[in-house]
Design a protein that fits this description.
564 residues, TIM Barrel, Immunoglobulin-like, 3 domains, 8-stranded parallel sheet, 5-stranded antiparallel sheet, globular, binds 1-deoxynojirimycin
């Protein structure tokens, strides 16, 4: 396997709106991030991925961009951005920007032009179609509820938007669109950007003819993912982007790719024939939730550890031959991983450390979402008025209009909402968790009083220092980065255990995913010639204890290093 700095790195995601406010307007900003660079350096991460900071009317919190080459007013100025990148590079940190080019904002000048007339030179920058029998051109549902088409009176046609109606999809079939995107990427790269996280990048090629989606649920509009995800020209477009832009720089690239299989993942990330370094797959994010066919909202469902093992293991093994994984349990679009896969009550600290071990010990590049490193949890706001996410609010409104009891809708939303991850970063126990001196744009999680960075930095046994240790270990042991993954105990519903092997070195990673004690027995095929070394654990372990068999306490995690 080829070595690469982005395989050896740990990425930290900042959702700027909720990270740190420097000017008291209640919205996080670039100067706020600059204030916290020493904190990030202390944690030990290598790369920061910044969710979008470009000009935007914020219909979808910056994922609707009206000018790719300028900074959102609430976040600051280009000069602030330059100060941020300089501050990061001075500390040896790299900066990944979000590249949102499946769609723009409807306020982008390209779209403003495009909607004016059918013969406008920008018309074909977007996907316009006449109606069909007085209805939308096809039956696709938008990811965020309602039709994926919006009628526009000026030219009596509809435009496609797979997200909100204020996020029109760009027409990648048009070479001028692609060239404009590549030019913009060069502009940022020349300003010192170290890579891109590419928003829903596998949606850029749509199946020609835009066929109707099969009827799989209730309602007028149906999920058309098979016609707009992983489309026929996707790899051609990505390889063109690689030739035109990516291959000219030493950067890190990660594609956000819903609805992908491991085959797609390998194809996109293959070091010779692919185009991106890694992708975010979503199979494990879909494990404990399903789409409610009536309301189109995501609702929680029980999940099984064996299913998680099956998914993660398949990604580990199928990408082994030349691809690379990204490793994550949450981000700004997901509830907190700790609340989903761990225990955010009694065993909050233990389970946060266990889950961190899980993420960091598989093969791939680990991603930490802001607040994971202090064990931030989901929030259950008591009223719909407290929620901010456009997806959730659209879904809520639609469900209530359909006659579903508002209290019931609220209860459906609480565990699955994206706002769980968007509450302000908890810095200290002062008002609004030290995030802002003003009124925050979204309420803080009330548990900030005891869960905050000040507390974490003062406690040598905190989740923060556990992450710091995991990151340091990655720099010390190449088996953590490059070792081959193999699952042990595939059928166990409580213990998740696997090995990583590189030459004569082996890691044994042993994780208890439940609040009960379990007995771990080392399988016979795992051998060692010297005394196993415990690299990290979230409990005190008696050094004299044998690795052959022991009790694994609630949410206990251990990583042993063996040599043969
Ligand atoms: C994925 C982004 O992560 C999410 O926040 C956004 O709403 C959609 N793509 C649309 O850009």
């Amino acid at each position: 396997m080829n070595k690469a700095w982005w395989k050896e790195s740990v990425v930290y995601q900042i959702y700027p709106r909720s990270f740190k406010d420097s000017n008291g307007d209640g919205i996080g900003d670039l100067r706020g991030i600059i204030e916290k660079l020493d904190y990030l350096q202390e944690l030990g991460i290598d790369v920061v991925w910044l969710s979008p900071v470009y000009k935007s009317p914020n219909d979808d919190n910056g994922y609707d961009i009206s000018n790719y080459q300028d900074i959102m007013d609430e976040f600051g100025t280009l000069a602030d951005w330059e100060a941020l990148v300089a501050g990061m590079h001075k500390r040896g940190l790299k900066l990944v920007m979000d590249l949102v080019v499946n769609h723009t904002s409807d306020e982008h000048s390209w779209f403003q032009q495009s909607r004016q007339a059918k013969d406008n030179p920008y018309r074909d920058f977007y996907i316009w179609r006449p109606g069909k029998d007085g209805q939308e051109p096809n039956n696709w549902v938008s990811f965020f509820s309602g039709s994926a088409w919006q009628y526009d009176e000026t030219t009596d046609e509809y435009f496609l938007h797979v997200f909100t109606k204020r996020q029109p999809d760009l027409n990648w079939e048009n070479p001028k669109v692609r060239q404009a995107v590549y030019d913009m990427m060069h502009w940022w790269l020349q300003k010192g950007v170290d890579g891109f996280r590419m928003d829903v990048i596998n949606l850029i090629s749509k199946v020609p003819g835009l066929p109707d989606a099969p009827i799989t649920g209730e309602g007028k509009y149906q999920f058309g993912g098979q016609f707009f995800a992983n489309g026929p020209r996707l790899m051609e477009f990505l390889r063109e982007m690689k030739d035109e832009v990516l291959s000219h720089y030493d950067i890190i690239t990660v594609g956000e790719t819903p609805l992908v299989t491991t085959q797609h993942g390998l194809e996109m990330t293959h070091e010779e024939t692919g185009a991106l370094n890694m992708v975010f797959q979503f199979e494990h994010m879909d494990l404990d939730r399903e789409r409610d066919s009536v309301t189109n909202l995501l609702v929680a469902k029980p999940w099984h550890l064996t299913a998680l093992k099956e998914i993660m293991g398949r990604w580990q093994k199928d990408l082994e031959t030349g691809g690379w994984n990204s490793l994550y349990l949450d981000n700004h679009d997901q509830p907190r991983g700790l609340s989903r896969f761990g225990d955010d009550g009694r065993y909050r600290v233990e389970s946060a450390k266990m889950l961190a071990t899980f993420v960091h010990m598989q093969q791939g590049t680990p991603y930490i979402y802001q607040g994971d490193e202090i064990g931030m949890t989901n929030v259950a706001f008591p009223s719909i008025e407290d929620y901010r996410d456009v997806w959730l609010l659209n879904g809520y409104q639609q469900a209530v209009e359909q006659g579903v009891d508002p209290e019931k809708v609220l209860a459906m939303i609480q565990p699955t909402s994206r706002d769980n991850a968007r509450t302000p970063m908890q810095w200290d126990a002062t008002a609004h968790a030290g995030f802002t001196s003003g009124e925050p744009w979204i309420k803080v999680n009330p548990n900030y009083v005891h869960i905050n960075t000040q507390q974490a930095l003062a406690d040598p046994d905190s989740i923060f220092y556990y992450y710091q240790k995991l990151i340091r270990l990655r720099k010390q042991h190449s088996v953590i980065v490059y070792g081959t993954y193999d699952l042990i105990l595939p059928d166990d519903e409580q213990i998740y255990a696997f090995t990583r092997t590189l030459g004569n070195e082996q890691l044994v990673v042993i994780l208890n995913f439940k609040a009960e004690t379990a007995v771990f027995r080392l399988p016979d095929h795992i051998t060692y010639t010297t005394q196993p070394e415990l690299l990290i654990s979230n409990y005190e372990v008696d050094p004299a204890q044998s690795i052959e068999q022991f009790d694994l306490r609630p949410f206990e995690a251990r990583v042993y290093h063996l040599t043969n």
